[in-house]
Amino acid sequence: MWSFENDPEFQPELDWIDTFVRERVQPLDYLLGSQWNIHDPEFIRLVRPLQAEVKERGLWACHLGPELGGKGYGQLKLALMNEKFGMSRFGPIVFGCQAPDSGNAEILAHYGTDEQKETFLHPLLANEIVSCFSMTEPQGGADPLIFTAHAEPDGDEWVINGEKWFASEADHAAFFILMVVTDPDAENPYRRMSMFIVPRDLPGIENIKNYGVYGEPDESHAHLRFNNVRVPAENMLGGPGDAFVVAQVRLGGGRMHHAMRTLAQATRAFEMICERVVSRETKGEQLSQKQLVQEKIADSWVELRQFRLLILETAWLADQGNDWKAIRKNVSAVKATMPKLLHDISSRALHLHGSLGLTHEMPFAEWVIHSFHVGLADGPTEVHKVVVAKEVLRDIKPAEGMFPSYHKVEMTRRAHELYDAS
Ligand SMILES: Cc1cc2nc3c(=O)[nH]c(=O)nc-3n(C[C@H](O)[C@H](O)[C@H](O)COP(=O)(O)OP(=O)(O)OC[C@H]3O[C@@H](n4cnc5c(N)ncnc54)[C@H](O)[C@@H]3O)c2cc1C
């Protein structure tokens, strides 16, 4: 049955989330620093009670299966919920589904031993600790095949050496999920790396420098060096050479939720545009009455609806088969569209607010920069567009002759062949 309506029993939950995020969570964006600084006394004072309310309502960590305390909601419902969470920087952490912890939890749930689940997964799910996913290296992130940080076996331990780059929230994290080379000579290059749980306090982990990104409250993206860091053999997640397979566990749903949160940010920019253009006058009329302004409103509204439908269709497809590989064209299309949408609508918002739009009092410059962030993290836009194109062209057959199969002469000949005798 084709329908754009929500389940009647789910809609009240969405409405509750919407009001709760707008009225109670959004104000935190103006009061607190990093969302991952969970030991900050102000975080404890302001965020913990909100998290308790979410738990009470039964909406905590809904991306998880029921066996881990989640609702086992499908991707469509999760997408709709993330559209609400994304209205505030603190939305995801108040609802127990912030990156990279949500994805890291999925990996641990999938590959961790019972003991690792006890030590790392359960406190992570309770937001008693936070974590870091560390894959990128200084010489390049878009091509994991040039990574060199490595681990070598030594008795019942692995010894890790090398550098990692842009490890977000490394300083707040209790542990890293770290991707390193374990078999540099493996014939299949995608079998050269393995994934490890690395507790943050192990000797030999050096933070060379934290890098800041415009608009973020802290410098939180670490350039790390691992100097003979020893981890027990059981800290390997999956088997040797499984790093790419393990990494995939976190990416499908994660990209979709991120897209809905980005849509929410672009929607906020749009709402701000709308308020501004009906509030400001120039040359004797409201900005909203200028046709060139109206074009920006119309374009933005259409782009938001188009993107939302693309995400929801992809979420729906995931719910039908739950096979991320089969729908990777759709997921990559979502990932590749997300930065442009946020960039274009935030830029229009900045522009339409005039000089005020450029100031630190408005969020637009930060959101424009954020559009570049979402175009880089989890793979640059170009790489995702290549996936879309390859998948689209995968089963297309070349024309048999000199001219296209749809050449008018040939189409007419075939039409005659079909109907002349009848
Ligand atoms: C805010 C932020 C947070 C991040 N957090 C983390 C984290 O927690 N953990 C982690 O491991 N990494 C993290 N990253 C790193 C992110 O995954 C990398 O930035 C990304 O993979 C690109 O790698 P790079 O920055 O080295 O760029 P490069 O690989 O040098 O690419 C630079 C540019 O080259 C172009 N390009 C690259 N490849 C292709 C291609 N195949 N075809 C055409 N053009 C191409 C693109 O324009 C690309 O933007 C984060 C990045 C940002 C911006």
Automatic annotation (TrEMBL):
<keyword id="KW-0274">FAD</keyword>
<comment type="similarity">
    <text>Belongs to the acyl-CoA dehydrogenase family.</text>
</comment>
<dbReference type="InterPro" id="IPR009100">
    <property type="entry name" value="AcylCoA_DH/oxidase_NM_dom_sf"/>
</dbReference>
<dbReference type="InterPro" id="IPR036250">
    <property type="entry name" value="AcylCo_DH-like_C"/>
</dbReference>
<keyword id="KW-0614">Plasmid</keyword>
<dbReference type="Pfam" id="PF02771">
    <property type="entry name" value="Acyl-CoA_dh_N"/>
</dbReference>
<dbReference type="GO" id="GO:0050660">
    <property type="term" value="F:flavin adenine dinucleotide binding"/>
</dbReference>
<dbReference type="GO" id="GO:0005737">
    <property type="term" value="C:cytoplasm"/>
</dbReference>
<feature type="domain" description="Acyl-CoA dehydrogenase/oxidase C-terminal">
    <location>
        <begin position="244"/>
        <end position="392"/>
    </location>
</feature>
<comment type="subunit">
    <text>Homodimer.</text>
</comment>
<feature type="domain" description="Acyl-CoA dehydrogenase/oxidase N-terminal">
    <location>
        <begin position="19"/>
        <end position="128"/>
    </location>
</feature>
<dbReference type="Pfam" id="PF00441">
    <property type="entry name" value="Acyl-CoA_dh_1"/>
</dbReference>
<dbReference type="InterPro" id="IPR037069">
    <property type="entry name" value="AcylCoA_DH/ox_N_sf"/>
</dbReference>
<protein>
    <submittedName>
        <fullName>Acyl-CoA dehydrogenase family protein</fullName>
    </submittedName>
</protein>
<dbReference type="InterPro" id="IPR009075">
    <property type="entry name" value="AcylCo_DH/oxidase_C"/>
</dbReference>
<dbReference type="Pfam" id="PF02770">
    <property type="entry name" value="Acyl-CoA_dh_M"/>
</dbReference>
<dbReference type="InterPro" id="IPR013786">
    <property type="entry name" value="AcylCoA_DH/ox_N"/>
</dbReference>
<dbReference type="GO" id="GO:0003995">
    <property type="term" value="F:acyl-CoA dehydrogenase activity"/>
</dbReference>
<dbReference type="InterPro" id="IPR006091">
    <property type="entry name" value="Acyl-CoA_Oxase/DH_mid-dom"/>
</dbReference>
<dbReference type="GO" id="GO:0033539">
    <property type="term" value="P:fatty acid beta-oxidation using acyl-CoA dehydrogenase"/>
</dbReference>
<dbReference type="InterPro" id="IPR046373">
    <property type="entry name" value="Acyl-CoA_Oxase/DH_mid-dom_sf"/>
</dbReference>
<keyword id="KW-0560">Oxidoreductase</keyword>
<keyword id="KW-0285">Flavoprotein</keyword>
<dbReference type="InterPro" id="IPR050741">
    <property type="entry name" value="Acyl-CoA_dehydrogenase"/>
</dbReference>
<feature type="domain" description="Acyl-CoA oxidase/dehydrogenase middle">
    <location>
        <begin position="132"/>
        <end position="229"/>
    </location>
</feature>
